[in-house]
Amino acid sequence: MTTESGADSEAKQPQANKEAEKGKTKAAADPASPQKQPEQLPAAVGHSTPARKEQEQQEEDQESHRSSTSRLSRSPLRGVKKVKMMQCKIALLDGSDYTVNVEKRGKGHVLFDKVCEHLNLLEKDYFGITYRDVENQKNWLDPSKELKKQIRTGPWNFAFNVKFYPPDPSQLSEDITRYYLCLQLRDDVVSGRLPCSFATHTLLGSYTVQSELGDYDPEELGSDYISEIRFAPNQTKELEEKVMELHKTYKGMTPAEAEIHFLENAKKLSMYGVDLHHAKVTSYNEVVTLSTFSHHKIFTFVQHDGQLVK
C-alpha cells in the first residue's frame, strides 16, 4: 500500500479548494439547478392541513343549507292545509242575488260585511243574514260562529233582511238605509206578515208607486200602469184604482220623500217590527209563535185557542 508524501498532499490541497470554490460560484450563477432548489409543492397541497379541510367542509354545509332554504321558500309547505272556499248566494231585498266566495272556516261576520260592502250600507246594526235549516226554518246567521258550523247540509243560500226595525225610521242617517227598510216592509206587507186594512194598503201602495215611478204622466203611463207593482197580498182592481187616485196627487214628491211617508205610516201598524216564526215548547207540547220586536228585545207569544198570548 502506497501513501502520498507530505509534499504531494500539500500540493493537492490548494487545488481541491479551488475546485470547491468554482463549484459554489457555478451553483450561485445557476439558481434553477434542481439539486439546489427546494421542492415546490402545489398551493392546495402546501395548505392541506386538517383545520383548512374542516373550514371548507363548514362552508359547503352552509351553502347547502342556504340552497335548501331557498327551495323551500319557493315551494308550498307540505304541512299547510289548502284553504277551502265556498260559494255563497244571498237573496237581496230588491229581488236580485249576490254571489260571493268566502272561506269555509270563516265566521258569519265575514259574509255579512261583504254583503254590506256590496250594498254600500253603513248603518249595519239593523240588518242581518238568514238561512234555512234542514226543517226549512228560518235562522239568523251568528256573526261570531264559523259558517261551516251553522250550515250543515245543502247549498249555501242566504237572504239579507232587516233584523231590528227602528222605532223611529226618521232618525236614520242614510237614505239607502231607509230604502232597504222600505223594501223589507213592502215584502212584509205583500207576504201578509204585516197585516193592513184596505185604507192602509191604499196609502202605502200609493207611496210605493210614487217611489218607483215618480210623478204621474198620462203620456208615458197607460191606464193600467200599476198592475205589475205588488203592494198587497190580495191585490184587487178596486185597490189599484184607489192607489192610482192618490198617486196622481203626489206631483213633485221625490222618491226619498215618498219612502219617508211610507215608513211613517208603516211604523204605526200593530205588527210593525214583529218577526213571527214557529217553535216548539214542551210545556204546551204544541207549535207556538216567537217574535222579535224592533226595540232589540225578544217577546214570546204562545198560540193558545187561536189567540196569541204574550
Notes on the protein architecture:
The chain is 39% helix and 17% strand. The chain has 8 helices and 9 strands. Helix 6 (198-213) packs across helix 7. The chain is elongated. The model is unreliable at 1-7, 25-29, 31-36, 44-48 and 281-310 (pLDDT under 50). Residues 86-310 form the FERM domain. Residues 67-78 have a biased composition (Low complexity). InterPro entries: Band_41_domain (IPR019749), FERM/acyl-CoA-bd_prot_sf (IPR014352), FERM_2 (IPR035963), FERM_central (IPR019748), FERM_CS (IPR019747), FERM_domain (IPR000299), FERM_N (IPR018979), Ubiquitin-like_domsf (IPR029071).
Annotation keywords:
elongated; Ubiquitin-like_domsf; Band_41_domain; 9 strands; 8 helices; 310 residues; disordered N terminus; single chain; FERM domain-containing protein; disordered C terminus; alpha+beta; 5-stranded mixed beta sheet; 4-stranded antiparallel beta sheet
Task: Give the SSE order as H and E letters.
Answer: HHHEEHEEEHHHHEEEE
What percent of the residues sit in helical stretches (DSSP H or I)?
A: 25-40%
Query: What can be said about the biggest beta sheet?
Result: 5 strands, mixed
Give the overall pLDDT as a whole number: 78
Give the radius of gyration.
49 Å
Uncertain segments are: 1-7, 25-29, 31-36, 44-48, 281-310
Distance between the termini: 154 Å
- Count of alpha/pi helices: 8
Strands in their spatial order, largest beta sheet: 2-1-5-3-4
What is the overall shape?
elongated
What portion of the residues fall into strands of 2 or more residues? Answer: 15-25%
**Backbone structural class:** alpha+beta
Number of strands: 9
